[in-house]
From TrEMBL:
Boundaries of every GH3 middle domain copy: 350-432
Domain GH3 C-terminal: 448-562
Lineage of source species: Eukaryota, Viridiplantae, Streptophyta, Embryophyta, Tracheophyta
GO function term, MF aspect, one: acid-amino acid ligase activity
Protein name: Uncharacterized protein
One CC-aspect GO term: cytoplasm
Pfam families: GH3, GH3_C, GH3_M
Family to which the UniProt record says this protein belongs: Belongs to the IAA-amido conjugating enzyme family.
Keyword set includes Ligase: yes
């Protein structure tokens, strides 16, 4: 682990360690489990299940049940409320991470500790050395769109923030980025500012000032990069004026940000004119990133899973620049590193690092409904296999056991094994394991909805329009119930075109249960609802207001009536299909 490596950074050493770990994945997994169970043998949780100091995987599987977050909530809540007895971890926990709340309904706490911080750095370093071999950067600086969420103390005095906030605020993160020569160059006051729109503006401004130093444009998830450049389209003239005059716009009101930015800003009419010329010369903002930052080597961020929707727009802004998809993890723990950066984003694979946790995989994934995944201990426990027992071509649900107090934890993701690197599996992300849309015998996941939106969105290609973002809903208030897809469109689309899109959306759900149910009218006609421009920004702001970090934001792909009223969806048009 990185503990051994400290923050010194020797690429050869990182590769050597990675090869060594993956060559002996079975042994490393056994030792990792042993270490986790030894360190936490005294915990109330493991004692409750009668593990009695056993550290082998057979006993672990036999005694400790598979759980969901809901099952662990009472334990975590006690920790959050200040109970320092060994509940889930042997060592007391001082920090908790909060989920973004956008993947799993509401924000949730999990323990965060040094081991999670170290595995984060191990993942970052591993993928970096492979990436840097293919796409070397010089003495690089990164335009990293990173933001902290609100940080607060829980009732019991634990520090709480989203996992990215916990990571970004650690000195290990800064030192590691420095060692990899990819540090974010915005002042800390910008990263940790209380208003993400102001932080975003200043991320852009500080990089424009040092435009020629930018070698990498990145964020945790691709959504934040697209969001940043959409914002650039709106505010570029203001940025231009700031650089020209050397005075920060009065829109930036946070004093700490103003003070930090004022130190960087000097009147620079030459640079301002250059930016103006570039922006005025672009057609529909194609190739904006290399135009502004010509030394950029690549764009980097998670582009798989629910991020696939943003790829098209990202490609548009990136021009010919390589798009490199980042690693795979969650606020509960990391899973794998992308060590094949040359693969196109959609085909990105993740090699599991066998020393960062203990991994099991549920075979024969039966996609559960939302309420089933929330339920407590399952009556019939699904069968799991170990890390090195998975089979190429098969899909599995991931189970995590971590150094931070999660034991046999159903992460809720489905992955496909597409090969092995030495003896550690190479995974592709498939989807969240819960179903989004199911009314009758139909079963449609996040991925199915995305594919349907993608197919229908193609009808816009001649119109220079795009689907900015989308979410969905099961409307059971009608008889029979039907699917509703909400869209925000980048411009004006005519009724006929939207009706065609609506038809296409309906036809593009190819699941036999859906097709059959539609035929016999057990499911009604799909409804497309077009939302007012800016609605998805409001949804983002809603979650950020609740404590989510922009860096971790994922648009919720399904909504309930309750959420819709929180989000204040303003529908501008309803379009039914007439199949
Ligand atoms: P959060 O814990 O809110 O940061 O979200 C974690 C979830 O994001 C994971 O459980 C996945 O569903 C998704 N995710 C994380 N990394 C990737 C990736 N590389 N590809 C696709 N989905 C990902």
């Amino acid at each position: 682990m990185l503990e051994k490596m400290g923050t010194k950074f020797d690429p050869e050493e990182v590769i050597e360690e990675f090869e060594m770990l993956t060559k002996d994945a079975e042994r490393v997994q056994k030792e990792t489990l042993q270490k986790i169970l030894e360190e936490n043998a005294s915990t109330e949780y493991l004692k409750k299940w009668g593990l009695n100091g056993r550290t082998d995987h057979e006993s672990f599987k036999a005694f400790v049940p598979l759980v969901t977050h809901k099952d662990l909530e009472p334990y975590i809540q006690r920790m959050v409320d200040g109970d320092t007895s060994p509940i889930l971890t042997g060592k007391p926990i001082t920090t908790t991470s909060l989920s973004s709340g956008t993947t799993q309904g509401k924000p949730k706490f999990v323990p965060f500790n040094n081991e999670l911080m170290e595995s984060t750095m191990q993942i970052y370093k591993t993928s970096f050395v492979f990436r840097n071999r293919e796409f070397p950067i010089g003495n690089g600086k990164a335009l990293q769109f990173i933001y902290s969420s609100k940080q607060f103390k829980t009732k019991g005095g634990l520090a709480a923030g989203t996992v990215t906030t916990n990571v970004f605020s650690g000195s290990l993160f800064k030192n590691t980025m420095k060692a990899m020569r990819t540090q974010c160059c915005s002042p800390d006051e910008v990263i940790f500012g209380p208003d993400f729109q102001q932080s975003l503006y200043c991320h852009l401004l500080s990089r424009l000032i040092y435009w020629n130093e930018v070698q990498v444009v990145s964020s945790t998830f691709a959504h934040s990069i697209v969001y940043a450049f959409r914002t650039f389209e709106q505010v570029w003239e203001e940025l231009y004026t700031d650089i020209r005059e050397g005075v920060l716009t009065s829109q930036i009101t946070v004093l700490s940000i103003r003070t930090a930015m004022s130190k960087l800003l000097k009147p620079n009419p030459k640079l301002a004119d250059k930016i103006h010329k570039k922006c005025s010369g672009l057609s529909n903002w194609y190739g904006l990133i290399p135009e502004l930052f010509p030394n950029t080597k690549y764009i980097y961020g998670i582009m798989t899973g629910s991020m696939e929707h943003y790829l098209k727009k990202l490609r548009h802004y990136a021009g010919e620049l390589p798009l490199l998809s980042a690693d795979y993890g969650s606020f509960e723990g990391w899973i794998g590193a992308n060590v094949n950066p040359k693969l196109p984003p959609k085909l990105a694979t993740f090699i599991v690092l066998p020393d960062i946790g203990y991994f099991e995989f549920i075979t024969n994934v039966e996609v559960p409904k939302q309420d089933e995944i929330e339920s407590s201990f399952l009556s019939i426990e699904p069968k799991t296999v170990g890390l090195t027992e998975v089979k190429v071509g098969e899909e599995y649900e991931i189970i995590l056991t971590t150094f931070a107090g999660l034991y046999r934890y159903r992460l809720g993701d489905v992955v496909k094994v597409v090969g092995f690197h030495n003896s550690s599996p190479k995974l592709q992300f498939i989807c969240r394991s819960n179903l989004l849309l199911t009314i009758n015998i139909d079963k449609n996941t996040e991925k199915d909805v995305q594919l349907s939106v993608k197919a229908a969105g193609k009808l816009f290609s001649n119109e220079k329009l795009e689907v900015v973002d989308f979410t969905s809903h099961m409307d059971l208030s009608t008889e029979p119930g039907h699917y509703v897809i909400f869209w925000e469109v980048s411009g004006e689309a005519g009724d006929d075109l939207l009706r065609e899109c609506s038809n296409c959306l309906d036809r593009s759900f190819v699941d036999v249960g859906y097709v059959g149910s539609r035929k016999v009218k057990a499911i009604g006609v799909l409804e497309l609802q077009v939302l007012k421009r800016g609605t998805f920004q409001k949804i983002l702001e809603h979650y950020v207001g609740l404590g989510a970090a922009v860096s971790q934001f994922k648009t919720p792909r399904v909504s309930s009536h309750k959420e819709e009223s929180h989000w204040k969806l303003e529908k501008i048009m309803k379009v039914y299909s007439y199949l």
